[in-house]
Amino acid sequence: MDLSNINFFAVVTATLSTFAVGWLWYGPLFGQLWMKTVGLTEAELAEANMLKIFGLAFIFELIMAVNLAIFLTGSSEAAEQMTGGLGAFYGFLTGFGWVFFALAVTGLFERRSWKYILINGGYWCVGFTLMGLIIGSW
Q1: Full-prediction pTM beyond 0.90?
Q2: What phi and psi values does residue 122 have, to the nearest 5 degrees?
Q3: How many domains is the chain built from?
Q4: Are 134 and 9 in contact (CB under 8 A)?
Q5: Measured between alpha carbons, how far is residue 87 from residues 24, 91, 125 in Å?
Q6: What is the pLDDT of residues 70-120, one digit of tens each?
Q7: What is the rounded distance in angstroms from the CA atom of residue 42 to the CA atom of residue 29?
Q8: Cα(129)–Cα(46) distance, rounded to whole angstroms?
Q9: CB 17 within 8 A of CB 131
Q10: Which domain holds residue 114?
Q11: Can you tell me whether residue 49 is helix, strand or coil?
């Protein structure tokens, strides 16, 4: 594994892209349905320590983006063959094949609704696809 193939500017950009997707996903697209599904109100969300939540989310998503970059460009051969389309494809497979179904299994045991699983799993599918596109393009 050669970390010199990783474009860390792309990794940080990919990390930040998850916040843009999250703003849309948990805001205008599915925000009201998500709040109802998890049993939160806007008042309860406003009481949260947002610095802590966003700070930790950035660190966790940065770790995920670095891991995806290692999978996509961790060897010279992989880095030479990587494209935006291929990165998006592998990002989608990561989000759908691993994260979505990991959340689904957990959701089943926690007796979560399919709405909960689809909203959160769908976010990660879109987020990882975009991260893969960004990392693969650079």
Answers
A1: yes
A2: -65, -40
A3: 1
A4: no
A5: 22, 6, 13
A6: 999 988 888 889 999 999 999 999 999 999 999 999 999 999 999 999 999
A7: 15
A8: 30
A9: yes
A10: 3-137
A11: coil
Contact (Cβ atoms closer than 8 angstroms) between residue 129 and residue 92 = yes
Local structure of 138: helix, strand or coil: coil
* H helical segments located in the chain: 8-24, 31-38, 42-46, 50-73, 76-81, 84-93, 101-109, 114-137
Q: CA 12 to CA 131: how far, in whole Å?
A: 10
Which pairs count as long-range contacts for 32-39, CB under 8 Å and 24+ apart, including other chains?
33/115, 33/119, 34/119, 37/113, 37/115, 37/116, 37/119, 38/116
Query: DSSP labels for 21-48?
Result: HHHHIIIIITHHHHHHHHT--HHHHHTS
Residues 6+ apart with CB under 8 A from 21: 123, 126, 127, 130
What is the 8-class DSSP label of residue 95? I
35-66 pLDDT, tens per residue? 999 999 999 999 999 999 999 999 999 999 99
| Structure-token pair, residue 111 | 């007796």
Distance, CA of 113 to chain centre = 21
